[in-house]
Write a structure and sequence with these properties.
The complex is a heterodimer of chains A (about 220) and B (about 260).
Chain A: H1 2-33, H2 37-53, H3 63-74, H4 80-88, H5 97-119, E1 127-136, E2 139-148, E3 153-164, E4 167-175, E5 178-179, H6 180-194, H7 197-213
Helix pairs in contact in A: 2-3, 4-5, 4-6, 5-7
Chain B: H1 2-16, H2 22-32, H3 58-86, H4 89-101, H5 104-113, H6 117-132, H7 141-146, H8 155-161, E1 169-172, E2 176-179, H9 180-192, H10 201-222, H11 224-232, H12 237-254
Antiparallel strand pairs in B: 1-2
Helix pairs in contact in B: 1-9, 3-10, 4-10, 5-6, 8-9
Classes of the chains: A alpha+beta (about 220), B mainly alpha (about 260).
C-alpha cells in the first residue's frame, strides 16, 4: 500500500514537472518568436517604404491613398495612449476616461498631419540606417539615421519603445535630439499652467481646423 | 574693453542664477520621463514630471520672440525665399560652409579649453585646407577627402564643461534662443574673433549681427519647408522652440 502511494506521489510530481517545463518552453518559444525592437522598426520602415515606392501610389493625385496606406502600416506600431499620457504629464491623472479618449484622438490627428507632410518630401534615394538598440526590461531605444539626398543631409531619428503584451510599441520619437513627447509636453504644460485644459483643447481643435482648410497638396 | 565688462557682468549673472536653471530642470525631466532608458522602467513616472521649464525671463523673452517672428515673417523669410529661388542648393550649402569656416578661431580655442587637443589641431588643419584648396571655405574638402570632421565647440559649451550652469532661458533678438550662459559664450566667441582687434564693440556687434543675419538667411532658405512645418504643427510655438533649443543644447554639451 505504502509503495503504491509513493508511486502515485512520484507520478504526480513528474506530471507537474513535465507540465511546468512545457509551459516554460511554450513561453520561451513565444518570447523567441517576438520581434526585437529593431526588427519592429525596420519592418515598419520597409513596409512604409514599399508603399511610398509603389508606382501605383505616385504623384499628387494619389496622395490621399498613399497616406492612408502608410497610416495603416505605421499607426498600429504606436502606443498612442502612452504618448498622450506622457505629453499631458502631471495633468493626465485629472482627466476622465472620456476626456482622455478625446485628447488621444485630437493629439493623434495633429501628429499624423505633421508626419504626412514630411512624407511628401520622401524621395527614392532616401537611405535608412539602423545603428543600435538598447533594451532594458520592457523599455527600448532604437537609434537610426536617415540620409536625405535632396538636402544632402543626415538626420538622427531615435525611437523609444515599450513592450505591451509581447509587442514593441513606439511611445516617443526623438528627431535630431529633440523628443517629440518632451516638446509637446512643454507646449501643453505651458498652456495648462497658464490657462486651462479647455483652452488646450480649443487650441488643438483650432489647429486641426486650420490644417484641414489648408489645401494638402499645397505643401 | 566694453566687451570685457559686458562679459564679466553676464558671467556673474550666469553663475548667480545657477538655481532654477532650465538645465537643472531638464536633468529632472530626464530622471522622470525616461529620457534615457532607466534601470527599471518606472511606468507612470511621468505623472511626476516637473512643471514647464522654468522661465523667469519670460517677460523679456516673449516680446523678443514676437520680434524675431516678425523679423522672420517680414524680412528673413521673403529674402530667403527669393534667395532660394535664384541660388542653387549646392551654392547655398557652399555659403553655409563659408560661414562655418570663418568660425575657426572660436572652435580652435574652445576645443583647446575643453582639453580636446587633437580636435583643436584638426580645426587648424581644416581651416588651412578648406581656405586654400576648398576655395575660401566654400567646399569642405578636409571632411570629404580626409574625413576631418568639424568639431563645433563654443564658449557656452566650454563654460558648461567647467561647471557653469545654463542660467535662465534667454531669447536674443536676431540670434534666437539661448540661455544666459550661452549668451556669455556668444559674446566671448565674438571677442575671440580676429575682427575684434580691428573693430570697436559696436562695429563688431554690427558685423556679427550681419553675419548671423547672412548665415541665417542662407540657413533659412535651405530649410524653408522645415520651418513652415514647425509653425504648423505646434500649439505653442514659444514652448516648442524653447524646448527644442534646450534639448538639443543639452545633448551638444554632453558630447
Amino acid at each position: 500500500m505504502r509503495e503504491e502511494e509513493n508511486f502515485m506521489i512520484i507520478l504526480r510530481t513528474v506530471f507537474w514537472k513535465i507540465m511546468g517545463v512545457s509551459v516554460l518552453l511554450l513561453s520561451f518559444n513565444t518570447w523567441a518568436v517576438a520581434d526585437s525592437p529593431t526588427d519592429t522598426i525596420r519592418s515598419t520602415v520597409e513596409r512604409a517604404r514599399a508603399v511610398l515606392d509603389d508606382p501605383a501610389y505616385q504623384g499628387d493625385d494619389h496622395r490621399q491613398q498613399r497616406l492612408e496606406k502608410v497610416k495603416a502600416v505605421v499607426l498600429p506600431q504606436f502606443d498612442s495612449q502612452e504618448i498622450a499620457r506622457r505629453t499631458l504629464g502631471p495633468y493626465w491623472k485629472d482627466r476622465t476616461d472620456e476626456q482622455r479618449k478625446e485628447f488621444i484622438q485630437l493629439f493623434t490627428a495633429l501628429v499624423e498631419k505633421a508626419y504626412s507632410s514630411s512624407l511628401d518630401r520622401y524621395s527614392k534615394g532616401v537611405q535608412f540606417f539602423f545603428d543600435q538598440e538598447r533594451i532594458d526590461n520592457d523599455i527600448a531605444e532604437v537609434d537610426t539615421r536617415i540620409f536625405d539626398p535632396t538636402l544632402n543631409k543626415t538626420f538622427s531619428i531615435n525611437y523609444r519603445l515599450r513592450q505591451v503584451n509581447g509587442q514593441w510599441l513606439i511611445y516617443d520619437v526623438v528627431v535630431e535630439n529633440v523628443s517629440l513627447v518632451n516638446n509637446y509636453r512643454n507646449q501643453f504644460n505651458r498652456i495648462l499652467s497658464k490657462s486651462s485644459y479647455e483652452d488646450l483643447l480649443q487650441k488643438l481643435q483650432t489647429k486641426l481646423q486650420q490644417l484641414d482648410t489648408a489645401s494638402p497638396s499645397e505643401s | 574693453m566694453t566687451v570685457r565688462i559686458l562679459l564679466a557682468a553676464l558671467m556673474s549673472v550666469s553663475i548667480l542664477s545657477g538655481a532654477g536653471s532650465p538645465r537643472a530642470a531638464h536633468a529632472q525631466t530626464k530622471a522622470t520621463a525616461d529620457e534615457e532608458v532607466p534601470a527599471r522602467p518606472k511606468l507612470g513616472a511621468e505623472e511626476l514630471a516637473p512643471p514647464p521649464t522654468p522661465d523667469p525671463l519670460e517677460w523679456f523673452n516673449q516680446p523678443v520672440f514676437e520680434f524675431n517672428l516678425k523679423l522672420d515673417e517680414y524680412a528673413l523669410r521673403p529674402v530667403a525665399t527669393a534667395y532660394d529661388a535664384v541660388m542653387p542648393d549646392a551654392a547655398q550649402r557652399g555659403v553655409q560652409r563659408f560661414f562655418k569656416n570663418l568660425g575657426v578661431v572660436e572652435r580652435f580655442a574652445n576645443n583647446l579649453f575643453q582639453g580636446k587637443v587633437p580636435q583643436a589641431g584638426q580645426e587648424v588643419g581644416r581651416f588651412v585646407i578648406n581656405t586654400t584648396i576648398g576655395g575660401i571655405g566654400f567646399l569642405d574638402v578636409a571632411d570629404e577627402w580626409l574625413g576631418w570632421k568639424e568639431s563645433p565647440e563654443d564658449f557656452g559649451q566650454t563654460l558648461a564643461v567647467y561647471g557653469v550652469s545654463s542660467g535662465p532661458y534667454l531669447m536674443l533678438p536676431f540670434f534666437g534662443p539661448s540661455t544666459v550662459r550661452d549668451t556669455v559664450g556668444l559674446v566671448a566667441d565674438g571677442a575671440m574673433n580676429p575682427m575684434a582687434y580691428f573693430l570697436s564693440t559696436v562695429e563688431l556687434l554690427a558685423v556679427r549681427g550681419g553675419m548671423a543675419l547672412g548665415s541665417g538667411i542662407n540657413y533659412r532658405s535651405l530649410n524653408l519647408e522645415l520651418f513652415e512645418d514647425v509653425n504648423r504643427y505646434t500649439v505653442d510655438l514659444y514652448g516648442a522652440v524653447q524646448d527644442a533649443y534646450l534639448q538639443r543644447r543639452e545633448r551638444q554639451i554632453e558630447e
